[in-house]
C-alpha cells in the first residue's frame, strides 16, 4: 500500500516511509491510495475471531507491504495486551472503556503500535537510532513514553510545559528512565510545540534522525480502528444497529472509526462530541470551516482549535458535506453541561465518567433523543483518575487510585529544565540518538 499526501504536492510513500516521516514533505497528512472493504463473510462470522485476528484483518492491507505477516501479528499481539470492556450503563447505552492500558488513556493503542512498527523498521540498525520528539499537554507524552519504553533503536525526547500538566501526568512522563527523556519547558504547550516544529525544520539537526509521534502519524491513527470492531462484535447479537459517539479533539479517533466503516464494519452513524471548541459542529451547520485559537475546558485533551485529522474525514466522505452528514453528526457541550452529565451518570447508574467520556455520553444522548432504537456506544477515552481534581470535586467522592498509577506516584521525577530553543538544540546535538 502506498500513501499520498492530502496536500497533493509530495511523492507517494510506502507504509514504512510514511511512518518514519510522520508528515509528508509538503506538510500534508498521508492517506492510503486505496481502501479495500473486507469480505461480508468476515463480518457475519466476526464472533468466531479473536481480537488479534480481527485486528490483523483490519490493518493488513495497510501494512503488509512493509511488515511480514508473522511480524505484524506479533506487533498486534504486543499492542493489545489489555482489555477493551464494553460496560452497559443505561438501556441502549454502553461505555467502551479504552483506559485499561499502561497510561490509562486510549492513546496507548496507537502509541504502542507505532513504537513497535518503528522498532521493527530499525531492527538491523542498532548503531543508528531515531529520536522521537514530541510536545505534550498531558496524555500524548505519557502514552508515547510508555509505548516506546525499551524499544530498540528508538530514543524519545518529550517536551512539556512546566507546572501545566497534572501530577499524575508529570510522573508518567518523567519517571521511566531508559530511552525516555523529559524536558521541562519554562513556557506553555504552544511554546513546546513551536520548539518541536523548529527542530524539524533545523538544517543543523539533519544528522539527528528526528520523527514525530502525534496523531497525524498513520501508525498511530490506523490501529485505533481495532476497538470499533471489538465493540461491534460485542453488540452484534443484540441485532440492533450501532451508533458510536466519540469525544473529539484532533478527530483522529473518530476518523479511525470511519475508516473501519469504510472497510465494511456495519456502523449506522458517528457522533463527534466536542467541548466548546466547536469548529466541526459549526462547519456542519454553516458549511464554513473556520479554525480558531483553542479555549481551555475541563476536557482539556480536546482543547483543539484546528483539528488536524478533519481533512482525512473529508477525504473519507469524498469531500462532500451532504455525504458526510449522512453518516456523521457533531455537537458541542459546555463545561457546565459536562459536569451535570457526570453527576447524572454517577447518581443514576453509579458509573464514573471522566470529563471527556461525559462529553461523549452527551453527544450520544443528543443523537439518540432524535433517533431512537439504536444501540449506542460512547468511547470512554481516559480513566477518571487522570482528571482527579475535576472528577472528585464534581462528584463529591473519592476515586480509587489504580495500581499502575500508585506505582509511579512514588517514583522520583527526572527532568531537565530548559527555557529556549537553543537549549533544546544543544541537548539534541550532544545527545544524538
Ligand atoms: C487525545 C484525547 C482525546 C481526543 O482524541 P482525538 O483523536 O484527538 O480526537 C479525547 N479524550 C482524551 C482523554 C484524550 O487524551
Automatic annotation (TrEMBL):
<dbReference type="InterPro" id="IPR001926">
    <property type="entry name" value="TrpB-like_PALP"/>
</dbReference>
<feature type="domain" description="Tryptophan synthase beta chain-like PALP">
    <location>
        <begin position="97"/>
        <end position="367"/>
    </location>
</feature>
<comment type="pathway">
    <text>Amino-acid biosynthesis; L-threonine biosynthesis; L-threonine from L-aspartate: step 5/5.</text>
</comment>
<dbReference type="GO" id="GO:0030170">
    <property type="term" value="F:pyridoxal phosphate binding"/>
</dbReference>
<keyword id="KW-0663">Pyridoxal phosphate</keyword>
<keyword id="KW-0791">Threonine biosynthesis</keyword>
<keyword id="KW-0456">Lyase</keyword>
<dbReference type="InterPro" id="IPR000634">
    <property type="entry name" value="Ser/Thr_deHydtase_PyrdxlP-BS"/>
</dbReference>
<dbReference type="InterPro" id="IPR029144">
    <property type="entry name" value="Thr_synth_N"/>
</dbReference>
<feature type="domain" description="Threonine synthase N-terminal">
    <location>
        <begin position="2"/>
        <end position="79"/>
    </location>
</feature>
<dbReference type="InterPro" id="IPR037158">
    <property type="entry name" value="Thr_synth_N_sf"/>
</dbReference>
<comment type="similarity">
    <text>Belongs to the threonine synthase family.</text>
</comment>
<dbReference type="GO" id="GO:0009088">
    <property type="term" value="P:threonine biosynthetic process"/>
</dbReference>
<dbReference type="InterPro" id="IPR051166">
    <property type="entry name" value="Threonine_Synthase"/>
</dbReference>
<dbReference type="Pfam" id="PF00291">
    <property type="entry name" value="PALP"/>
</dbReference>
<dbReference type="GO" id="GO:0004795">
    <property type="term" value="F:threonine synthase activity"/>
</dbReference>
<dbReference type="Pfam" id="PF14821">
    <property type="entry name" value="Thr_synth_N"/>
</dbReference>
<protein>
    <recommendedName>
        <fullName>Threonine synthase</fullName>
        <ecNumber>4.2.3.1</ecNumber>
    </recommendedName>
</protein>
<keyword id="KW-0028">Amino-acid biosynthesis</keyword>
<feature type="modified residue" description="N6-(pyridoxal phosphate)lysine">
    <location>
        <position position="107"/>
    </location>
</feature>
<dbReference type="InterPro" id="IPR004450">
    <property type="entry name" value="Thr_synthase-like"/>
</dbReference>
<dbReference type="InterPro" id="IPR036052">
    <property type="entry name" value="TrpB-like_PALP_sf"/>
</dbReference>
Amino acid at each position: 500500500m502506498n500513501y499520498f499526501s492530502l496536500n497533493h504536492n509530495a511523492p507517494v510513500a510506502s507504509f514504512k516511509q510514511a511512518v518514519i516521516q510522520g508528515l509528508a514533505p509538503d506538510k500534508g497528512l498521508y492517506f492510503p491510495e486505496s481502501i479495500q472493504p473486507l469480505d461480508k463473510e468476515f463480518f457475519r462470522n466476526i464472533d468466531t475471531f479473536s481480537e488479534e485476528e480481527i485486528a490483523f484483518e483490519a490493518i493488513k492491507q495497510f501494512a503488509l507491504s512493509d511488515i511480514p505477516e508473522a511480524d505484524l501479528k506479533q506487533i498486534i499481539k504486543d499492542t493489545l495486551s489489555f482489555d477493551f470492556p464494553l460496560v452497559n450503563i443505561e438501556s441502549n447505552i454502553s461505555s467502551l472503556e479504552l483506559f485499561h492500558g499502561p497510561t490509562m488513556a486510549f492513546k496507548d493503542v496507537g502509541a504502542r503500535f507505532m513504537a513497535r512498527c518503528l522498532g521493527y523498521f530499525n531492527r538491523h540498525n542498532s548503531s543508528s537510532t531515531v529520536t522521537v520528539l514530541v510536545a505534550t499537554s498531558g496524555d500524548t507524552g505519557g502514552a508515547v513514553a510508555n509505548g516506546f519504553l525499551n524499544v530498540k533503536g528508538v530514543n524519545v525526547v518529550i517536551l512539556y510545559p512546566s507546572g501545566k500538566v497534572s501530577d499524575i501526568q508529570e510522573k508518567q512522563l518523567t519517571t521511566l528512565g531508559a530511552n525516555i527523556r523529559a524536558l521541562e519547558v519554562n513556557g506553555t504547550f504552544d511554546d513546546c510545540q513551536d520548539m518541536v516544529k523548529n527542530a524539524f525544520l533545523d538544517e543543523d539537526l539533519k544528522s539527528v534522525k528526528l520523527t514525530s509521534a502525534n496523531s497525524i502519524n498513520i501508525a498511530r491513527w490506523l490501529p485505533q480502528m481495532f476497538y470499533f470492531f471489538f465493540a461491534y462484535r460485542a453488540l452484534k447479537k443484540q441485532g440492533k444497529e450501532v451508533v458510536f459517539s466519540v469525544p473529539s479533539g484532533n478527530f483522529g479517533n473518530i476518523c479511525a472509526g470511519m475508516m473501519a466503516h469504510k472497510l465494511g464494519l456495519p456502523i449506522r452513524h458517528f457522533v463527534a462530541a466536542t467541548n466548546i471548541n466547536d469548529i466541526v459542529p459549526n462547519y456542519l451547520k454553516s458549511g464554513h470551516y473556520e479554525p480558531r485559537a483553542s479555549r481551555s475546558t475541563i476536557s482539556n485533551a480536546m482543547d483543539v482549535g484546528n483539528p488536524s485529522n478533519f481533512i482525512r474525514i473529508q477525504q473519507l466522505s469524498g469531500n462532500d458535506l451532504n455525504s458526510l452528514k449522512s453518516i456523521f453528526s457533531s455537537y458541542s457541550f459546555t463545561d457546565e453541561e459536562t459536569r451535570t452529565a457526570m453527576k447524572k451518570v454517577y447518581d443514576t447508574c453509579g458509573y464514573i465518567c471522566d470529563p471527556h467520556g461525559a462529553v461523549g455520553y452527551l453527544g450520544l444522548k443528543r443523537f439518540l433523543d432524535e433517533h431512537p432504537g439504536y444501540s449506542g456506544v460512547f468511547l470512554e477515552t481516559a480513566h477518571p483518575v487522570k482528571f482527579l481534581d475535576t472528577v472528585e470535586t464534581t462528584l463529591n467522592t473519592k476515586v480509587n487510585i489504580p495500581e499502575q498509577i500508585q506505582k509511579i506516584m512514588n517514583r522520583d521525577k527526572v527532568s531537565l529544565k530548559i527555557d529556549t530553543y537553543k537549549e533544546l538544540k544543544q541537548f539534541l546535538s550532544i545527545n544524538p540518538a
